Amino acid sequence: MMKILYGMYPIDQGEIFLNGEKVDLSKYNTHSAIKHGIGMVHQEFMLVKEMTVLENIILGVEPTKRNSKMALDFTAARKKINHYIENYQMNVHLDRKVLNISVGEMQRVEIIKALYRGADVLILDEPTAVLTPQEADKLFEILDIMRKDGVTIVFISHKLKEVMAISDRISVMRGGKYVATVHKSDTTIPELAKMMVGREVFLDGKRSMVEVGEPVLQVKNVYVPSERELSKNRDISFMVRAGEVLGVAGIDGNGQSELGEAIAGLRPVEKGEIILGDKVISNKAPHYVRDCGLAHIPEDRNDRGLNKEHTVTYNLVAAEIGDAPFSKYSIISEKEMRKVSEERIERFDIRPRDPRNLAMGFSGGNAQKIVVARELGAPGKKLLLAAQPTRGVDIGSIEGIRRLIDKAKREGLGVLLISADIDEILALSDRIIVMYEGRISGEVVNDEYLTDEKLGMLMLGGEADAKS
Amino acid sequence: MLKVKSEKFETTIRIVLAFVFSFVLFGVVIAICGHNPIDAFYQLFRGGFGSKFNFGSLIEDFIMILTIASAYSLTRRIGYFNLGLEGSFYLGAMFSAAPAFLLPDLPKIVIIPISLACGFIVAALYGSICGILKAYYNVNEACTTILMNYVAMFFCDFMINNVWVSPGSPIPQTPRVQENAMFAKLPLSPSRASTAIFVAFLVYIFVYFLTFRTTFGFKIRNVATNARFSDTVGMKSKRVVLATVMLSCGLGGIAGGLEVLGIYGSFIQNFSQNSAFQGIIACLLVNNNLALVPLSSFFISFTRAGGSGMEYYTGISSALIYTVTPLMILFVSMEKMFDYKRFFRFVRKIFVRNKEMNVKE
User: Fold this and answer.
1) Which residues cross the membrane (chain B) (predicted)?
2) pLDDT for position A464
3) Which of B78, B215, B223, B233 to mutate: most A Cβ within 10 Å?
4) Do A309 and B219 make contact, defined as CB atoms within 8 angstroms?
5) How far apart are CA A94 and CA A166, in angstroms?
6) Which single residue of A29, A371, B38, B303 could bond A7 by disulfide (Cβ 3.0 to 4.6 Å)?
């Protein structure tokens, strides 16, 4: 919806009022949105990585020197930007390349960028998804000062805690429809959750305790290459045992994705060894790794997780197409595929039920359930590698998917849960390792003594000895 | 929600609509050129079906076009723009001829498979060059295949001028193949249409079966739409791409073999003149809908045979008929233009409005 407001998607119907004036919708686009003072910070940052922070901010509205239209006036720009930085106590280095700054800093750059364009309505789309708790707190402080300065802030989030922390008024949307707007003082978190889902939810369901068994996954001194310096895995070692969930926490881009891909066989391993069950799987093809017992929920369900142009049936059986009963002597049987997929759709509660639907029509939650159903529905799995399993999923399905992961644990699978969502890690994991700049910065047991702050410290590369 | 079946149905309708539109447009163009379009269409049909010879030469083209179209369909599916079929057509033709004039006389049942297999293998190996470049080094295939076509053509030129020379013939060609290697002719003389048509249909059925009924076809269809997904679920997408390209070029080679063993009896210099592209067009024409490929192949061969007939009888240049197919491709690719559902909705709206008005009156 916010993309409509920002003019990125065309408007079918309706009206927009801004400062009491009706906006001419026939010519409404991003450009006029900016002109009306709307600024947006997207979930995926829109920055040019090869340029400096300063260049990124002025991109598109470059100030020119008085005597020449061609020469850029960096001094004036710098002065104006520094004004914002001081005003909101933001820590931003103007001369660094965007490539080399942290995610939190990128976000601050995005905010300045919006302000620099004269925004007095600032839209933030899931701004904390990529931040540590500390960085999120810092962001809230900045937003608070801005609010006092008279900037209108639209804060989009599915994390209810944050919504409650920052907002004055809260509007709830469900399935593309407006549900209600409430004042913060009039509502509570469970009430909001109920509004969002239409029924009661229990996100903080107790994780089950299971007797742990033999190690299923051993990662020994592994080095994994990456395109980004910070994401290169360096000397990673850990193991996952049957019947336990090992959470991999960390801010996005600190090497978790690379680790996951290396285990799944999608990325080469430079040094070291990965063992699944009793077989070495490092530098082996994904097919071999799967045969060894890997169930893999990939990080990006729209790209690696699903084939959107095929039916649910095809998506559900794609990993096992070479095995009985789906094919015999390389000849596939649509009938068997249909039969098994109907059974899995029922078991994993994928809606709508019809297996002939194309995968592209599904909502985030149900699409992810297709992935989970394919991976956990297949027999003979030993390890579940779940990378960001509930990213971009509605709150009702989050609950369902987390339950499925917990169930997999009870059934004796080892689970490696990679997630940038601390709440998710805390809700599901028995042990947690934290990755920072491609290294493991600490390993902790998830018990009542573990706090968000301690995890946050580790995510920022702090030492594990902050044990208090 | 979108369903597969309804989508297929829609494309079929779209193709039919495109067909009608382009022929109407063709008629208009003929009228502008000062001829009678009805007469032209009549002569076009006479050119295609008027006599045994006309129909026979239609079949001659059909054999080659159907085989190439089936071959092209494979690579089309994975988004590989396989223009290298022209090259494999040449190589397949020459190396199918080679065993047939090098080996001693053998029975038909032995020599024909040997010949075709030989052409298939050489063409597949030729295709593997561009296939490897594409799959493992991501080199644009449109570039490599076109260049490799010339390599293949000049290599064939070299061979017939220096190694496998047929002495005393006016144009460079290989020696004639042994009589047993030739396909029996269909009863359509004096045309040269032969029983190779059965092999062409065999190739078509093979491609159809492979694409929709086998695990390999399943992989092709997955790699086609999302290679990264295919990798993740354990298909070796690069290998699938390479295998598909090799198979496609190999089948293109068989098309060459059918041409030599069915029609000419020897490999003649420049015998093809871009005819492989006709097969590619046949496949593009129906948006790679395999079920319709025989029809579109037949249609293309009809325009070829009918076009020369039309030229002969009415004086309308046969070049004009060749504009029909590009027009059709254009119309087929303009998906939105033939969104007939929207059209129906529009019509219904008008009707409903009229009814309402009638009621009011």
Assistant:
1) 12-33, 53-75, 87-103, 109-133, 145-165, 193-212, 240-264, 276-300, 312-334
2) 47
3) B233
4) no
5) 28
6) A29
Nearest chain B residue to A266 by CA distance is B232
Structure-block tokens of residue A88: 């909101």
Q: B215 to chain A nearest CA, in Å?
A: 5
User: pLDDT tens, A67-116?
Assistant: 666 677 777 788 888 887 887 777 777 887 877 777 778 888 888 888 88
Kindly indicate the confidence band of residue B94, based on its pLDDT and cuts at 50, 70 and 90.
Answer: very high
The residues, ordered by sequence, that sit 6+ positions from A108 with a Cβ below 8 Å of its Cβ are A90, A91, A92, A139, A142
Mean pLDDT of chain B: 84
Search chain B and give the residue with CA nearest A353: B1
* Inter-chain CB proximity B218 and A314 less than 8 Å: yes
Task: State how far residue A327 is from chain B, nearest Cα, in angstroms.
Answer: 7
Is residue A222 helix, strand or coil?
Answer: strand
- For residues B103 and B108, give the distance between their C-alpha atoms in angstroms, rounded to a whole number: 13
Closest-CA distance, A334 to chain B, in angstroms, reads: 8
At A161 the pLDDT is: 74
Question: Which pTM value belongs to this model?
Answer: 0.76
Q: For tokens 């019947």, name the residue.
A: A243
pLDDT for position B198: 93
pLDDT beyond 60 at B67? yes
- Name the 3-class secondary structure at B66: helix
CA distance A336 to chain B (A): 13
Q: What is the pLDDT of residue A377?
A: 84
Shortest Cα distance from B178 to chain A (angstroms)? 38
Interhelix angle B141-158/B108-137, nearest 10 degrees:
140
What residue ranges define each of the domains in chain B, with the CATH number in brackets? 60-302 (1.10.3470)
CB-CB contact of B260 with B96 (8 Å) = yes
Q: Which residue of A has its CA nearest to B220?
A: A318
Which residues of chain A are under the pLDDT cut of 50? 464-468
B357 in reach of chain A (CB within 8 A): no
Q: Chain A within 8 Å of B163 (Cβ-Cβ)? A: no
Nearest to B326 by CA among B29, B13, B8: B29
Which of A287, A307, A314 is opposite residue B236, by nearest beta carbon? A287
A positions 267-296 inside 8 Å of B (CB): 285-287, 289-291, 296
Domains detected in chain A: 2-197 (3.40.50.300), 215-459 (3.40.50.300)
Summarised one tens digit per residue, pLDDT across range B113-172 is 999 999 999 999 999 999 999 989 988 888 899 999 999 999 999 998 888 888 777 888
Beta-strand pair A331-332/A327-328: antiparallel
Percentage of chain B exceeding pLDDT 90 = 27
B6 touches chain A (CB under 8 A): no
pLDDT at position B58 over 70: yes
Distance CA B68, CA B274 (A): 12
The string of DSSP letters for A336-362 reads: HHHHHHHHHHHHTT-SS--TTBBGGGS
Question: How many CB atoms sit inside 10 A of residue B161's CB?
Answer: 12
What CA–CA distance (Å, rounded) separates A445 from A429?
9
